[in-house]
Amino acid sequence: MPLHKIKDFDPDYRTHFEGQDIIGYDLHAGKDNIGSVDDLLVDDMGKIRYLIINTGAWIFGKKVLLPIGRSRIDYKGHRITAEGLTRAQAESLPQYDGTMPVDYDYEEQVRSVYRPTTALENSAPLDKNKAAVGYDRDTYSYDRDSDLYNLDDTNHQSLKLYEERLIANKTRAKTGEVAVGKRIETESAKVSVPIEKERVVIERTSGASTAVTPGDKAFQDGEVARVEVYEETPDIRKEAFIREEVSVRKEVDRDVVNAEETLRREELNVDTEGTPVVDQGVDSRRNSERV
């Protein structure tokens, strides 16, 4: 069964490790820091089979495979402990350079280093392909080496402590609507315009008894007196003017709403019998709050 680097197989692989990225975690053997985790290999089913570990200065930067069952993950300390890994084993493991395929023969070399000595002594003779009698590349199953490929939950137990927090959020809701528009109202208006009209007044008076000479302009036919007569007529029309301007805007009134709730928090109780050495760790969140 071919193996794949976890990033190529599942880009969201962090969800398998409590949301953390264990790639880059320090690697410890006992109390010694012996390197770091470079990558992980998974099978076609997505099950983690190996950690690719860089031994750093421990074995001159040699990269080897560590079966996932031989690891103990410390998420709080961001480190992984290689259970039972010795320097002699690391030196005996075939080097991993990422270029050659991790096939059945390569895995058998890795497994032969990690398998317990007692298991090797009690195992069946090896055939010419260095495979234990009873299985070969076509019939091998990882279940045969469950101690190498199954995570031991007893080494990874965790207890989650919960607490309640008061979360303050705001929701925006429509409480009303104001519509500002126009309407037309009508009314009757009266206006008075004084006008003038001209009229012709003809006044006749009796003439004087003064005689005229024959040469005077008298008895001339067609003599006319012309007078132009005018009158005013009203010019009444309607015109539109701006009576007033109305502006519409919104203003925000701010207030503070106070709320009080009773919050619960779980605390850790550690009961011991005898005189075991217990490292209870440090509440990093509370320390950060004190800073």
Q: Can you describe what's shown?
A:
This protein is an alpha+beta fold and 291 residues long. The chain has a domain of 152 residues: Photosynthetic Reaction Center, Chain H, domain 2. 13% of the residues lie in helices and 13% in strands. The chain is built from six helices and seven strands. Strands 1, 2, 3, 4, 5, 6 and 7 form a seven-stranded mixed sheet that branches. The longest helix has 11 residues.
Summarize this structure as a short list of keywords or feature phrases.
291 residues, alpha+beta, Photosynthetic Reaction Center, Chain H, domain 2, single chain, rod-shaped, seven-stranded mixed beta sheet
A few lines on this structure:
The protein has 291 residues and is an alpha+beta fold. It is 13% helix and 13% strand. Strands 1, 2, 3, 4, 5, 6 and 7 form a seven-stranded mixed sheet that branches.
